[in-house]
Amino acid sequence: MAARSVLKSVCTSLAGLKLGASGSNVSALQRINVPQLSALTIQSRGIRQVVEKQEGKTTTVEGRSVEVPAGPQPPNPTAKCPIYRWNLQHKYNYTDVLLLSQFIRSDGGMLPRKITGLCAEEHRKIAVCVQMAHRAGLLPDHRPKLPEGHVPKKAKPQLNRVNQAIWLHLLECHHSVHPGSQ
Amino acid sequence: MSSFTRSAQQWATFARSWFVIDARMQPPGKIATMCSVRLQGKHKPIYHALSDCGDHVVVINTKHIAFSGNKWEQKVYSSHTGYPGGFKQVTAAQLHQKDPKAIVKLAVYGMLPKNLHRRTMMQRLHIFADDELPEDIRANLTEELAQPRKIPRKLSEYTQEEIDAFPRLWTPYVETHMHTQSALKHSKARINALTTCSAHVCNTAHKNQYRRS
Predict the structure, then answer these.
(1) Which class does domain A82-135 fall in?
(2) Pfam families from the xrefs (chain A) (predicted)?
(3) Which residue of B has its CA nearest to A37?
């Protein structure tokens, strides 16, 4: 996805060069293209951390790739959706916060399906479970950020809520979820 | 038990016990059923309605009670002062704000049999909004009852080790060398096409290749 977008930017830049500068040299094209091509030749681009170093008058901004150690392998690696990969299709509930927290943003909203790779029905189910978890107060740190300087007028009463809607097939086999424990 | 003396057996059968229930994050209706069963004495095999065999029940942490659904906003408690225009209706949230013990008290009152014994049974029910109990009641407690509803763990209550032990289900898209190799070939071919042909003598094939990006 990112590769395609980078290519798109390369091609649009090429288009601009071609249409704009009719007499532009090959060397000009090459000069502009080379850095982008060399960027693509880095072997593996994972998640990177931005590190800023200041030495006197020069500031160096570096993106250091973080080595993520390979975790346990899913029991069904060929499936497309992460839930199907770990065989958790009907086995999670709104109480399995460790699972749900992997699919939410820091302010409590769901991550897009295109990024997480979930299939449509599982994305909907997880969204519903996340809503139930928020209502039950199980995700206290994933609250939307209030604008700066906002002071709540009246302290809202802290009312506890209980969620009762559990899918019927979970009533028989409800136990704490751990993938790979089957 | 058959090994007890007669007086000990008599005492074990007929003594009035004191139960304590923690109502934190529990639905008040479930707490109330447990209380009413024990206040009437229906948990004993020697039960009879006239034998006054009910026990004492102490309910703590009633201000942390949890309703399911939208009952905090929708459940209405009504009363009438007796005077004209004295019909009052308050929601559960408003009543809980005014008096944190009232919801449990009204729930138990409604679940007891509607006879003259009800008032004496309510006198044996002791409700406290938080943890603090007077010393004499604390000295009398004999048994703690299990909470009817299992409280789910919040994300903040998990330790960092447990969070790390849980495997990551998905990883963000990572460009590997394979992707960049094919992309590199594609872009090199395109660049060759562009540099070899001039602006006027462009082949349609090259143009299409270029546009298909």
Answers:
(1) few secondary structures
(2) Ribosomal_S18
(3) B184
